[in-house]
Amino acid sequence: MMKRLSILLFPALFFALSLQAQTPRSTLTFMPPQMQGLESTFACPVGQQNFAGTVSLGTITAQSNDVDLDTMYLCFGDMVDILHNGDANLSGDPDPTTAPGIGYAFYNCPPIVMGPDLPNIATDPCLVMNPPPPGDFWVATEGNLNGDILFFNDGSLINFFNGGAPALYWWAPITFDSLFTTIIGADTTYQALYEMNGPCVNANVNAAFAVVYLTAIDATNINNNSGASGCEGSFTVQGGLPEFDGGAYNITIVNDADPGITGTITSGVPNHGDVVTFTVPVPGLYNITIEDGKSCGAAFQMDMSACVNVTLEIANDQGIPGGTVCVPVTATDFTDIVSMQLAINFDPGILSFTGAQNFNAALPGLDAPDFNAAGNLIISSWVSPGLTPVSVPDGAVLFELCFDIVGNLGDVSPVAFSPTGVNEITSATDLLGFNGIDGSVTV
Questions:
Q1: Which residues pair with residue 298 across a beta bridge?
Q2: What confidence tier does 4 reach under pLDDT thresholds 50, 70, 90?
Q3: Which of 42, 57, 178, 252 is spaced 20 to 30 A from 425 at the CA atom?
C-alpha cells in the first residue's frame, strides 16, 4: 500500500514544479520509535539485496536531435519517456505490508555508490546537495512504482537547482521502500520513503544517464530600424546550447514574400548574449529563424518595410565559343547615390574578363580603370566627385562587363554578385540596402 497524508502545507519536504515529471524531491525515512537502535536487525539477508534495474527510451517529443541514454540534450519544452525494463529486484523491502518501487536519484556527476543501504548511498560525492534536501538526498518519482517516468524540460528544474542557467545532471535508478503521497488542494506530490532507515537500497550507477537541460532560445531588444536607410536591424540572442557550451547559433533571415531574398548578418558569428546586427536587400517582412547545434530553435518576424534599397541587375546573355559578349548591368531606385562598390563572380574556365564599357554618363568619373579582375572576381569602386548625389532612371544601364568566351558549347557561367565580397551603395545620407540580381552567360 502507499502511505498517504492529506495536509494543507508541507514545505520542508518538497518543492512544487508544474509537472510530476522528473521532479526531484527529498527522500523520507520512517523508523517506528520502538525500533530505534535496532536498525541492524533489518539488514539485507544474503541473496535478497535490492537491484534497481535498467531503463530504455520511450516516446520522444522533442526539438532536440540528440536524445539518447549517453548524454541527452533537452531543448526547452522537450519531453522524453524513460521506461523501466522491469528487471528490478525489490525483495529487500523491510516492510512487506507496503509496496516498494523504483525512482531516480539526482547527481551532479557520474554516481559511484551503489549501496547496499541508504546511509552508504548518501555518501556519494556526486549527489546534488545544493540546495540541501531536508532528508538524505533528492529522488524523483512519478506517482507509480514501476520506474516509468516522463522527463520534461519546462525550466523548473534548472530554475530551482541552478539559478535558471543550463546544466548537466545525472540520474540513476534507485529502489525505495514505499511511496509517500502528499495532497495540497488539487496538487499531489510523491516522495521516496525508506523504512527502517533504508537497510536494503540499490542505486544502479551502471544504468545512470546524463541529461543536459537547455534554456529557451530567445531574441530580445528587437530593433527593425537601426540605420537611416531602414535596411539595418538588430536583436539580442540568448539561450539554447550556446549558453551551455559557448558555441554559435545558425541564424537565417528570409523574406516572407520571396524566400530567395535573404538578409545578411553583419556582426560576425553569433554567440549567447550577442547583439546580432543585419541588413536586408529589399523592404518587406522577414522570417528570422535561430537554431543551435542540437536543433533547438526559435522563430519570429521583423517588419523591414521601411528599408530604402537599390537594385542592380546583371543580364542573362549568350555567345559562341571564341566570341565576345558584353553583359549590361541595370539599376532600379538609383537615387541620390554618391558611391558604389561591387564584387562580381564569373567562371574563368568559360569566360575571360576583358574590361568594362558603355558607362552611364550620369556617373561622372566611372571608367574602365575602375574595374579590375583577379581570378574569378571583378572588383569595382566608384565615388562621385565631390560626393555630388547622382540619380539615374529605373532600368538604366550603368555599365557593361565584357568577356572573351573560352568555354565550350553548352557551358554556362554565372555572372553574379559575390556573396562574400563587398557590394555596397551609399546615398548622400546612408548606406542603402543592396539587392543584387545575378545574371549569366550561356555558350
A1: 290
A2: very low
A3: 252
